[in-house]
Design brief:
Keywords: Ribonucleoprotein, Ribosomal protein, RNA-binding, rRNA-binding. Belongs to the bacterial ribosomal protein bS6 family. Pfam families: Ribosomal_S6. This protein has about 100 residues and is of the alpha+beta class. The chain is built from two helices and five strands, in the order βαβββαβ. The chain has helices at about 15-30, 70-80, and strands at about 1-10, 35-40, 45-50, 55-65, 85-90. Strand 3 and strand 4 form a beta hairpin. It is globular.
Length: about 100
């Protein structure tokens, strides 16, 4: 098992319920493809470094998880089509 960290930026233009549902969907994807979430993290509203889709703010969520090498690619392919997710990045945690 490898350690990974997912950085997720969710649109600030959606309701809190929709934002929480989006984050929960991502967590379910991780567990569906064999990952175990070690740190669910929190979501904080921050200003974006540059405008994305005419938005200047977003909710940053960081999720740490353990998974096999195939899991991140599967999760990325599903996150890519989520409309409330502005940007995302999965990196191997080097602790």
């Amino acid at each position: 098992m490898n350690k990974y960290e997912l950085a997720l930026v969710v649109s600030a233009n959606v309701d809190e319920e929709v934002r929480n549902a989006t984050v929960e969907q991502v967590k379910e994807l991780i567990t569906r493809f064999g990952g175990t979430i070690t740190d669910p993290g929190t979501c904080e509203k921050k200003k974006l470094a540059y405008e994305i889709q005419k938005m200047s703010e977003g909710f940053y969520c960081f999720i740490k998880f353990d998974a096999d090498a195939a899991c991140p690619a599967e999760v990325e392919s599903r996150i890519r089509i989520m409309e409330n997710v502005i940007r995302f990045l999965i990196v191997k945690d080097g602790e």
